[in-house]
Amino acid sequence: MLSWNKSEDRVAIIQMNAELRNAQLELLSAECAKDRLRIRFSAEDIACYGERDVLRKAVASATALKDYYSSIAQQVSDPTSIASPRASAFPEEKVAAAIDLVRKYLRDTGEEYRPQGMPLDPDRCDTMKPFFSPSLLAGIRMVELRNQRIPNPPFYSQAKALGITNLPELTHMASLTFEDLIVFPGEITSRRLFHALVHAVQFSVLHFERYTDLFVRSFLRTRSHVSVPLEVHAFSLESKFAENPDVPFSVEEMVRLWANHGRY
After folding, report:
1. How far apart are CA 131 and CA 14, in angstroms?
2. pTM of the prediction?
3. Per residue in 37-75, pLDDT tens?
4. Across the beta sheet with 181-184, what order do the strands follow?
5. What is the separation, in whole angstroms, between the first and last Cα of the chain?
6. How far apart (Å, rounded) are the C-alpha atoms in residues 89 and 42?
7. Dist. CA 74–CA 83, nearest whole Å
8. DSSP state letter for 172
């Protein structure tokens, strides 16, 4: 059994968690594929007319995954640590106040950087065209900061005083999306750009008010930035793009699918 006290095991544990995160993202992609099936076809239709070999393999894979993760869950010493997140314990008036603070920060910071925004250059635009609509790409503005980081919001000190921990460190973010404006504190890679554009699509589909409401409520529920469904989906689609950048798919279609099924 691995032990954190052994240096060689610590490396293995870090690698294990990286692979676990990748597996989770691939499972989310599989859930998206399942939802596309469910939208168009009933379980009865698939059972009657689905190709037997494909259906058999799909059922076998799903069953094996369930058995594997269930066996892990049975060995977790604190089952509540992996239980489904509960609703936020914060009173509604404080949740609403937090949402207002985030909205104000996004608006004010976006307006601060907007004068520096530049359109996507032709090469980057061509790379992203198979995944994003021409209208969205045409409206995007980017800011590349030089030797500069975005400071954390001023309301972080208030949030920490209320016991809200694990706030995302904006100074370490690869990008920040303010609706149709994307700010890159560091190098702009295709993968980072793709991730930021997914958030731009989420803003476009959900609209500013709903996006911020969903983000804040999910963060207060999960207490983890990377566990917020909006972020999870962005990482999932980013991973899908990175693995097969030559295979096009519609990010907007994927975002609308999650939105319509209440997965955000």
Report:
1. 32
2. 0.72
3. 776 788 888 999 999 999 999 999 999 999 999 999 888
4. 118-119, 141-144, 181-184, 176-178
5. 37
6. 38
7. 12
8. G
